[in-house]
């Protein structure tokens, strides 16, 4: 399963419980980032996004990777 960041998560373990994780990225920030990308006609080499949105999404990504790794999921960079 290829993600937007180019990572592949492989796991055959499906937990029978609910995992709770607090996200720093608000829904508005997430949607704003999508709007920024969608408004570009071509794939530019760089885009301008709010610093807070970038920091929040990086924090969320790090927490997600830590949670998954703690559950035994191996995250590989293909």
Which structural class do the helices and strands define? alpha+beta
Q: What count of helical segments does DSSP give?
A: 2
What is the straight-line distance between the termini?
Answer: 10 Å
Instruction: List the secondary-structure elements in sequence, H or E.
Output: EHHE
**Large-scale geometry:** elongated
Largest sheet: 2 strands, antiparallel
Give me the side-by-side strand order of the main sheet: 1-2
Note poorly predicted spans: none
The total domain count is 1
The whole-angstrom Rg is: 15 Å
Proportion of beta-strand residues? 5-15%
Quote the average pLDDT: 81
Secondary structure: number of strands? 2
Q: Helix amount, in percent?
A: 40-55%
Written account of the structure:
With 78 residues, the protein is α+β, with helices and mostly antiparallel strands. The chain has one domain (1-12, 21-38, 50-78). The protein has two helices and two strands; from the N terminus they run E-H-H-E. The protein has helices spanning 27-38, 51-70; strands spanning 7-10, 74-77. The chain has a two-stranded antiparallel ribbon with strand order 1-2. The N and C termini lie close together (10 Å). The mean pLDDT is 81.
